[in-house]
């Protein structure tokens, strides 16, 4: 069982079905412009996605953490760690648009990495970033991430970073 992770300003815990109604409206086209996915058009479309998350968590393959402010429990964003029991887990995150540039991304992703380091001892983390997503590239590089290769996604070129564990 993955415990709640507390940071200075946030509580992160695995996604639960009751979180879905609050998350879906924040999945905007602008937010997803650098994501590999397109925002679901309807709540029912999002349900098809999130229904898989608890099963993946139970299988201990992926975990989607929901982040909430400690102060008022309002929704901040999602932090994912995929294949977390492998030597090279993959990271991803998104923070709701009105909370960008407030440091929630680095705070949350570092806490997820620290959890994985403590419980699973990865060799390094993989973090794919759209080439044009300069804020995310700066975040990854601030964590010691080094660009190792690129991949062509249907939407854009991805830079694949390795972050030391």
Provide key terms for this protein.
single chain, 165 residues, alpha+beta, Aminopeptidase, five-stranded antiparallel sheet, three-stranded antiparallel sheet, 8 strands, 27% helix, 31% strand, globular
Describe this entry's structure for a reader.
- There is one protein chain.
- The chain is α+β, with helices and mostly antiparallel strands and 165 residues long.
- The protein has one domain (5-127): Aminopeptidase.
- Helix content is 27%, strand content 31%.
- It contains 5 helices and 8 strands; from the N terminus they run E-E-H-H-H-E-E-E-H-E-H-E-E.
- The strands form 2 sheets. A 5-stranded antiparallel sheet has the order 1-2-3-4-5, with helices on both faces. A 3-stranded antiparallel sheet has the order 6-8-7, covered by helices on one side.
Would you spell out the secondary-structure blueprint of this structure?
Blueprint: E1 5-6, E2 10-14, H1 20-23, H2 43-50, H3 52-58, E3 62-69, E4 75-82, E5 90-95, H4 104-120, E6 124-130, H5 134-142, E7 146-152, E8 157-164
Antiparallel strand pairs: 1-2, 2-3, 3-4, 4-5, 6-8, 7-8
Domain N-acetyltransferase: 10-165
Keywords: Transferase
Protein name: RimJ/RimL family protein N-acetyltransferase
């Amino acid at each position: 069982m993955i415990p709640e992770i507390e940071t200075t300003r946030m509580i992160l815990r695995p996604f639960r079905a009751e979180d879905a109604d609050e998350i879906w409206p924040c999945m905007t086209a602008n937010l997803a412009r650098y994501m590999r996915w397109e925002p679901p058009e309807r709540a029912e479309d999002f349900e098809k996605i999130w229904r898989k998350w608890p099963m993946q968590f139970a299988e201990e393959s992926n975990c989607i953490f929901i982040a909430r402010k400690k102060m008022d429990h309002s929704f901040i964003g999602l932090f994912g760690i995929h294949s977390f029991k492998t030597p090279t887990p993959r990271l991803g995150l998104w923070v709701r648009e009105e909370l960008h540039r407030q440091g929630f991304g680095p705070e949350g992703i570092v806490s997820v990495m620290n959890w994985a380091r403590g419980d699973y001892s990865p060799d390094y983390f993989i973090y794919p970033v759209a080439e044009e997503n300069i804020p995310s590239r700066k975040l990854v590089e601030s964590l010691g991430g080094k660009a190792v290769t690129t991949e062509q996604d249907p939407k854009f070129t991805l830079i694949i970073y390795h972050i030391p564990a």
